[in-house]
Amino acid sequence: MSSNKKYWKSDDQLHGNPAVEALSQNEFVQEIPTDEFLGDKKTLDSTETTRRDFLKYVGFSTAAASLAACEGPVKKSIPYVVQPEQIVPGVADYYATTMADGFDFASVLIKTREGRPIKVENNNLAKGGFGANARVHASVLSLYDMKRATSPLANGQEVSWDDIDQGIINALNGGKKAVLLTQTFASPTTDKLIAEFTAKFPNASHITYDAVGEQDALDAFELKYGRRALADYDFSKAEVIVSVGADFLGDWQGGGYDSGYGKSRVPKNGRMSRHIQFEANMSLSGANADKRVPTTPSQQKLVVQALAGGSASGLPENIKTAVAFAKKKLAEAGSKGVVVTGVQDVATQRIVLDLNANSEVMDTANPKLTRSGDARKVAQLVKDMNAGQIGLLITAGVNPAYSLPNADEFVAGLGKVAVSVACSMKVDETAVKMTHVAPAPHYLESWRDVQIKQGEISLMQPTIRPLFDTRQFQDNLLKWMGSDQPYYEYMKSTMQAAGVTSFNKAVQDGVVYTDAFAKAAPSSQEDSSLTADAGLAVDTLQGDGNFELTLYTKTSMGDGSQANNPWLQEMPDPITRATWDNYLTMSEADAKELGLWLDRSTFFTEARHDANGGLNGRYAEVTVDGVSVVVPVMVQPGQANGTVGLALGYGKKEAIQEDMQTGVNAYPLMQGFKNTQKVSVKKANEDVHEFALIQLHNTLMGRGDIVRETTLEIFNTKDKHYWNPVPEVTKNHIEYEVTSPEVDLWDSFDRSIGHHFNLSIDMNACTGCGACVIACHSENNVPVVGKSEVRRSRDMHWLRIDRYYSSEDTFQLDDTKKNDFSGLGGDNGSLGGFSEMEDPAANPQIAFQPVMCQHCNHAPCETVCPVAATSHSRQGQNHMAYNRCVGTRYCANNCPYKVRRFNWFLYNGNDEFDYHMNNDLGRMVLNPDVTVRSRGVIEKCSMCIQMTQKTILDAKREGRQIKDGEFATACSNACTSGALVFGDVNDEQSEVKKLSQDDRMYHLLEHVGTKPNVFYHAIVRNTEEA
Amino acid sequence: MIQVKRRNSFYRIITLSAAFLLTLTTSLFAQDTAGDAVAGEALFKSNCGACHKLYKPMTGPALYNVVEKYDGDYEWLYKWIKNSQALIKSGDARAVQVYEENGKKVMNAFPALSNADIDNILAYTNTPQPAPPEKTIVEGEAVGGGVSNNIILGVLALVFVLLVAVLFLVNNTLKKFATAQGIEVEEPTKRTPIWKAFVQNQFLVLVTSILLLLGSAYFAYGALMSVGVEQGYAPIQPIHYSHRIHAGENAIECKYCHSSARVSKHSGIPSLNVCMNCHKSIAEVAGDGDYASVTEDYSKEFYDGEIQKLYKAVGWDPATQSYTGETQPVEWVRIHNLPDFAYFNHSQHVTVAGIECQKCHGPVEEMEVMYQYAPLTMGWCINCHRETNVKIEGNPYYEKIHEQLSEKYGVEQLTAAQMGGLECGKCHY
């Protein structure tokens, strides 16, 4: 029975309101007033454009536009009017020059194409200046920095050089004190020039300032040897290396010790060096050490005293034992032992110099001259400026308004200086506050001589004409002295007068050995004010605070002068693997105590990782003497309890692109110019910071197929099959080595004819410095993707250096633990056991493993590509044809090594990725021999096929066989520690062939049966335990 | 009009002959006094021509009537020509003046020339400039030749139309006769029109449409595959540079200008200073005689204008024979454009393989306007790699690999493909 009840929606409907009636007929009560928005009715009626016409026009114009687009663009080719003799378009020229920006010093070769510098290589003729680090490799991009100062400025207005010169000459003759505040030039002719300058203008004086100085080491050296210099160390001669807070594989005393250290670390005839490290932060040196002892900076001082025979009381038991052990080993090694320290204290530095007096490793006769700054004079200058005593301040190569701990005072003092000139490459924090800016050229546009190590003069020469209206500091000085001589002439005549007979040869080689500029030790001390505890007379480790802070420089960022360099910003820190950031490193225990610890992801809480694996961190406030900064906290395994670490060089705000303004400026914490400080740390707020890490997994969890390692004792005494076995599989109840063709899925391919390239990676020699990563970027046009993309694991690095922590104290214990798993649950259960193994130990061992495409002979990527875009060559290289790739990413999924990178976006000429590939200046660094990849294709390491092909072609053209050592890749060229060796294994005499037959040789994930053309050498640790 | 023109040319011919006779006479006179102009011409071309012209200044001044210029002072001229520098150093006033007037350019010494030789040369320098050649005749001929073809065609068409009309008329007339005489003309039987029959035959329709579809697919495929293939691309260049004249008539070796093809991936567009190696002394094309370079389409004036463009670009002042320093680089339109992802190296092909440039670039020596000869597609590259043998003679690099590989493949000669020239990564990276 249906109901006949009446339903109504409103009262109006029930009572028959006419509006409701109308609405039931039409959608709208009134007609839509179309003519109001389409124009008046008259126009509408009179118009002849109907809807159909409109569509026709749209269709026509679309078709016309697409037809017009069919025509190829007209490309222009513009040859030289007069072609320079040495330039052949398409052929690279190399020039020797020297980088010396006051922080990094290295003799290098610059590859130029059509007059554009595009790549930095090591200069093998150099000794003291040999070994370009990641920053030196990246410096070629800083040449094309779009934020460089382009023309002279006076009070922010563009002026001519004459105006600048006149203003300065007037100020120089004004009678008031004039000060030259410069970087360490380490340049004999510049020193001479400055001496002439200060002689001509008696009111002028010269102060050297290093942003990250070695004040105490310099003072100690000066006290003992009468020269302001730094002892040099040749670690290749060392048998025992004891480092107390010295990150000598990083930037300690200018760095550059990788090559010597690498040599001593490769076991030869059963011997290798032993490295013991006492340190607070987990540094590169600590990561490479055989034994690492977490030690706070104040304990480090005691450690040095104990090593020198003092009392070890006051040190915890474990450190006491370690010190005693180190002492014993040093005594055994005799003259082949060496102690280095980074303790910021003149007395301690002095002790170390005494300890090493008989060491073969230390060289004080020909010291290093790469640091010479005097912080006392800088501190005095700031006082003088504020007292209004300075009439003219000229800065060169320094940025005190950014890097001084008392930058505010400096800026205030600057206001009282009548004329101030910044000879700076950028209108940086300092230059922007100065009255004049005299733009300086990049080192690739300048002339100079640099004495990195006494007796070795490295020459700097321009490799490109100045891009902007710049003039180098030395030319400025000559001009202001009233001389018309260019600095080049001055330098040339000075060098020739000093006995460098063939100046052109010296420039060609980039280095000349002469003692002409060696300073003899003066009979009495140069500076009578210097006493044993001179320093700055402050012990920054005393005072209030609950933590000891060690300020350090990152391998990527250094002192921050290249902060606007996207390669360096995106270069992962070797230890934390973080990009685009600096952060407070802290031990897990301390983080938990301060409430800065984030738990592993749970459903309800804010988690350490987000859903994509991106790492999060809390913020902490760090306070020294009333100066405080808020920084994100990263929990660092191995960080000594009670200590924190923070990287310098970040937090720049001036003359830097917005994307590159990352991190926090830590210089204000560097009170008294000391790297170690007593600080108080507390939780700042409840916010969560998002880090961008390249690597998400921290430990190996006992997977010995990835990193193999053993101890020197086992290596010397046991058979290879014990410590480096080839995995075996069973077929028909017979055990076969997995490399045997008997158990191979694929038919083997004959690669015995022609070249067959192999890359050898010695993990004992690899220090993890990352120079190869930047060299690869530069050679292969690898794009920079930015922080948010890195956090999404979309980084494009073709070569990564994986860092693995051990979850027990050593990798050996990891293996034992994993092998002892029985069953799922219980005490030895794998279920709980594996999750325990995910967390690194408090003081873990570390292994570095460079991973690039392994160029498998039986490549899993090749079999799954639906369009055959990736294929194998007879020469062993796995090819990738970008133009063929359709972007299915099957290959990346099937790659066991995860080395394939997908171009999620167009990274060049895209405003969303505003790095060097988005401006004409930055694009000049691109290598014209390598395709710039577009969106939607996979890319990966090509084993620098453009370089191997070039070597082959050169040999063909010259009609000769290829010698061993001619084949190279960008990474093997950049590696100064000898870890990466590239060559042709079909050449029986080649080094790589010998290395491939070494006992330590193994392939990554050998059991997969991919037969890679990249192989590794197992780590051998010189430890007594295990 | 035509008559007037002819008369005009007739007069010109007369004047020309008169001029020619006059030349002969002058040379006859010259012979009497000094030397043999014909022998002088040869000497002039081999010794003086690099820097001097008769009627135009080049590196050195114009030499026409040089004897008259120096008042017939043969003795002074001998000294000057044999060693001008010595004469200047001796302090001879006139020599110093001449030296300074000509921008202190040092003239080569010619001690090997005898006085008689110099007499001959000087005789040749007295040759007056010949009058410019006649052109109207050439024009007339060209026009006549062009029209004749059209006329013939037109006449043929007319004949054809007439024929049709005549046939039609004949047919009509015959029909009229037939009607008049009562002969019954058989009417053609009504048949189904052919198109209707075709439409009704389903099988035929099906076959035809399949054929049509296949045909159009074939052409569509061809059209699509030619997208981006710029074979025959011959853009207009900022300077009309004729490869025909340079590589063809003058037989200049390709790699003289494109020198980087030997050592670099780029063949290189020569920089303008390479052009000036020759064009410093060649300011105009040969307009007549055996070496004439002009064609019907491009006149001498046109070519000379193009050379002037070069001078402007490189900043060369032909009047003072010096560089002004104001340069204007030439923006050539690039003809051969390989995509960025394809790596090609000229030196590999030119120096190592010894391939002729013409193999890929076609008959450049005949090209008045340069165009892209080869399709430059990957198929084209690969085809050649499959067919071409590697040139191993005299190249120790190939010794070992060639021996091993030829043994493996069981062949005498390896192709580029067998050597690995088809691997993707050899060209794409």
How many helices of chain B?
Answer: 19
Q: Name the pair of protein chains with the most residues at their interface, and give those residue counts.
A: A-B, 49 and 55 residues
- How far apart the termini of chain A lie comes to 91 Å
Radius of gyration of chain B: 35 Å
Query: Helical residue percent of chain A?
Result: 25-40%
Task: Output the strand order for the largest sheet of chain B.
Answer: 1-2
Account of the 3D structure:
- The complex is a heterodimer of chains A (about 1050) and B (about 425).
- Chain A is an alpha/beta fold and about 1050 residues long.
- Among the domains of chain A are: about 1-65, no CATH class; about 230-370, Dimethylsulfoxide Reductase, domain 2 (3-Layer(aba) Sandwich), CATH 3.40.228; about 545-695, Barwin-like endoglucanases, CATH 2.40.40.20; about 710-1020, Alpha-Beta Plaits, CATH 3.30.70.
- In chain A, the strands form 13 sheets. Chain A has a seven-stranded mixed β-sheet, with helices on both faces.
- In chain A, helix 10 links the parallel strand 10 (about 240-245) and strand 11 (about 275-280).
- In chain A, helix 9 (about 215-225) packs across helix 14.
- The longest helix of chain A is centred in the N-terminal third of the chain and has 19 residues, at about 50-70.
- The model of chain A is unreliable at about 525-530 and about 530-535 (pLDDT under 50).
- With about 425 residues, chain B is mainly alpha-helical.
- Chain B has four domains: about 1-125, Cytochrome Bc1 Complex, Chain D, domain 2 (Orthogonal Bundle); about 195-225; about 245-375, no CATH class; about 375-430, no CATH class.
- Helix content of chain B is about 55%, strand content about 0%.
- Chain B is built from 19 helices and three strands.
- Chain B has helices at about 1-35, 35-50, 65-70, 75-80, 85-90, 95-100, 115-125, 135-180, 195-200, 200-225, 245-250, 255, 270-280, 300-315, 345-350, 360, 380-385, 400-410, 415-420; strands at about 315, 320-325, 330-335.
- Chain B has a two-stranded antiparallel ribbon.
- In chain B, helix 2 crosses helix 7 (about 115-125) and helix 13 (about 270-280) packs across helix 14.
- Chain B is flat and about 115 Å long.
- The model of chain B is unreliable at about 1-5, about 25-30 and about 135-145 (pLDDT under 50).
- Chains A and B meet through strand 1 and helix 32 of A and helix 13, strand 3, helix 15 and helix 18 of B.
- Chain B: GO terms for molecular function: electron transfer activity; heme binding; metal ion binding.
- Chain B: This is Cytochrome C.
- Chain B: Pfam families: Cytochrom_C.
- Chain B: Keywords: Heme, Iron, Membrane, Metal-binding, Signal, Transmembrane, Transmembrane helix.
- Chain B: It comes from Dokdonia sinensis.
- Chain A: InterPro entries: 4Fe4S_Fe-S-bd, TAT_var_transloc_signal_dom.
